[in-house]
Amino acid sequence: xxxxxxxxxxxxxxxxxxxxxxxxxxxxxxxxxxxxxxxxxxxxxxxxxxxxxxxxxxxxxxxxxxxxxxxxxxxxxxxxxxxxxxxxxxxxxxxxxxxxxxxxxxxxxxxxxxxx
Length: 116
What we know:
Elements: H1 11-38, E1 41-43, H2 44-51, H3 55-63, E2 70-72, E3 75-79, H4 80-87, H5 95-109
Antiparallel strand pairs: 1-3, 2-3
């Protein structure tokens, strides 16, 4: 942002200048957000940031092949969709889901649990 001396500006001129600056910043931010949403391949650092882990933990996960990744030479890449799938792969059932499973199991067994 450029240094501007405001003593030479009238209030309408200042408002106009401020509006233009805000529009420019918002436009740049929108362009950056759109690029990030469209990006499907992430480099190692971007992938670690995307899933919220440190780079050292990322290296540990890739070296043990616990996370989906691709390698080109010495560089590691992630596919965004694969990371999303990996993050959701160890779903923990809620209490209501467990109760539904239990009810379904007992209904199949005839509901005669604990009696001979």
